[in-house]
Amino acid sequence: MQRFKKILFVCDHDGGMPAVTDHVRALAKRNNAEVTLLDVVEGERGDLARLLSILPGARAEEVETQVEAALLDRLEEVAATFRVEGRIATCLIERGTPFLKIIQTVLRDDYDLVIKGAEGDGVRSFFGGTDMHLMRKCPCPVWILSSEAPPRLYRVLAAVDPDPEDGERDALNHTVMELATSLAARNDASLDVINVWRVQEESALRHGLIKIPEADIDAIVAAQEGQSAWRLNTLLTDFPDSDGRRRVVHEKGIPGDVIPAHVEAEDIDTVVMGTIGRSGVAGFFIGNTAETILGRVRCSVITVKPPHYVSPVVHPDSAA
């Protein structure tokens, strides 16, 4: 399926540009997509000029304009590699807070995908502040590429927590599966589908001070496992394993522990997951759970939102 028709490629200085550019060019070719290359100059016009004004004889405003022109030239050089392959590639320089400008560009021009290189330094955090803001608040899918990502995808992981009786949750899990299966098929990659389940406060229930027979607790756990397996199988019936390369992992535990461990053990190069959902749903990828996972994996990650998600970022055409 032609998944992405309009791609916003964030070309900042921190995201492993050559490797990311190769991925974006291949993605655009496979999807016959048009690409916009975006760089954001932090701060408003005049900020750099005021900084440079302390230098004797500095032509501050002229230097600021030259910096912006140099950034645009850099984007044009990258865009030329797309155009030579027949892709439509335009360049855009914005000023302001990077994640706000990126999301406002998505809202204004209705992009299907934001893709950028991971900006973390690999010591304190793999995903930097802009990355995390995008994954939390951008309405379209966000693909943060590891600088160590292979030339194409080999091992894709779809992290799901389905419930066919919850419309929002069900829709998000279908979106995750649609994207993950499409990426795996287009890259001739294997696909793991992981669902982590658990019984809330099982350890407390098994505490000797709580007067519940062990057999009853075992029955509760078995029932929860069976219900979780039914939900997962119901989701998978909509996504047949046509090439026999899919593996389903249904594991008991905490998602923030199990998923990163699976990523490392199985050498996963790309995780597809949802990052927001209705609060109060046990084990769903919201808030701390999603951020725990994102804080513990070093592979590329694609995050998606529910179909009717509304970003908290103000549309650029809205009144202040």
Note down, in words, how this protein is organized.
By secondary structure, this protein is of the alpha/beta class. It has helices spanning 17-31, 47-52, 60-83, 98-109, 129-137, 167-187, 202-205, 214-236, 255-265, 287-294; strands spanning 6-10, 34-41, 89-95, 113-117, 142-145, 155-159, 190-197, 246-252, 270-274, 300-304. Strands 3-2-1-4-5-10-9-6-7-8 form a ten-stranded mixed sheet, sandwiched between helices. Helix 4 (98-109) runs parallel beside helix 5. Mean pLDDT is 83; it is low at 278-284.
Number of alpha- plus pi-helical segments: 10
* Strand portion: 15-25%
SSE string, helices as H and strands as E: EHEHHEHEHEEHEHHEHEHE
N-to-C CA distance:
39 Å
Based on helices, strands and strand pairing, what is the structural class?
alpha/beta
Summary tags:
elongated, 10 helices, 10-stranded mixed sheet, alpha/beta, 42% helix, 320 residues
Fold blueprint:
Layout: E1 6-10, H1 17-31, E2 34-41, H2 47-52, H3 60-83, E3 89-95, H4 98-109, E4 113-117, H5 129-137, E5 142-145, E6 155-159, H6 167-187, E7 190-197, H7 202-205, H8 214-236, E8 246-252, H9 255-265, E9 270-274, H10 287-294, E10 300-304
Parallel strand pairs: 1-2, 1-4, 2-3, 4-5, 6-7, 6-9, 7-8, 9-10
Antiparallel strand pairs: 5-10
